[in-house]
Amino acid sequence: MDYVPHTSKDKERMLEKIGVESLEKLLGSIPEKMRLKRDLNLPSPISELELKEHLKKLSQKNKSSDQMVTFLGGGAYDHFIPSVVEHILSRPEFYTAYTPYQAEVSQGTLQSIYEYQSLVCELTGMEVSNASMYDAGSAVAEAAILAFSRTGRKEVLVFDSTNPFYLDVLRTYTRGMDIKIDLRKSQKGIADPADLKNALSEKTAGVIIQNPNFFGLLEKVEEIEPLVHSSGALLILVCDPISLGILKPPGEYKADIAVGEGQSLGNRQNFGGPFLGYFTAKKELIRRMPGRIIGATQDHQGKRGFVMILQTREQHIRRERATSNICTNQALCALAACIYLSLLGKTGLKKVAELCLQKSHYLADRIRQTEGFKIKFDHPFFKEFVVQTPLPPQKIIETLLEKEILAGIALSQFKLGLDDCLLISVTEKRTKKQMDTFVEELRKLK
Q1: Which of 63, 199, 272, 323 is the most buried (most CB within 10 A)?
Q2: Does 105 have pLDDT greater than 90?
Q3: What sign does the dihedral 81-409-207-275 (CA atoms) show?
Q4: What is the CATH number of the domain that holds 165?
């Protein structure tokens, strides 16, 4: 970004234009305790050339996950991205994260989104998909709101085995609405069907189940589904799309809504964004879905074309009939997912999922054989697992960081009663040598 200086005269003219006497009065609404009252101790002025060299040296202190061996997960994963994905994304006709407001003039953009929707429906086994969301957290929250509007009921059940970041977004979205979030405790890392059965009532609008869940474990969805539907509530599944290469898709579980994070489909971790949330549902819910939906049609000459068939935001329809105020669809990230899925196909995605499964279980077995370390939950998992450690997880993370290994996520920050536990993720990128080195470093810590 270019540096645009303001002279004292410039500032005076701007203050005069907005009708404020001084800069101090302009900032008057900022609480006194929030104001910086010390000297910044900035160095003497330097030339532009010197400044660029200084900033370059500072930037070289940063390291991306590509330069390290990462076992981080929790919703953002270090999967391999074929070079062609970013090559196509970089084409100028695609290089925007937004759907044009005059969308019909950009048939290429609309077609790419249509193809994305089609691929996501095939992946999840669901009937309809929208043109994507901000991320999985916003998709989870919008799914809860849809269940609320569809059933007229005011309670949503969710378990603490759901990603805590998604739960935070869910609480934020529903805070100003007449929706009660009933957070249930998981048992040994997974949702307890018996507890769910007792909690369900005529007030329950929907039940949110993440599978694989935040701990990487597979939930008992086949037992949960009939309980949810017999109560008249909607079943909302949150799924890692990579896992669907080998696991039963939400459509086969009779899910009403299926959502999740699409970052692992050809998008880099980027310090946590931008990501995309996929949002799918049964066809009967299509008019209550948030965001936009692209459809294929024919013009008066019989030529195939693409249009936005549903736009349920208040920008497009009467405010009282809008389902959401979400305005973007993360089109660039969705295009990356579309390209990634097209390149891999069913066989390729299955192979990626199988590698994640096999490698994560290899590492878990090696850690299990390491004195003092214990796999916390005895339940099937996909590519993530929880390790109980003999010393503080944060100390492990900080020590291994010096070895350029990102050891995982300390679960103490989430107040789940797992303060001595580390969440570890393994993708297809991890080699046997990297995993063996990780275990060797853990053994040195004792």
Answers
A1: 323
A2: no
A3: negative
A4: 3.40.640.10
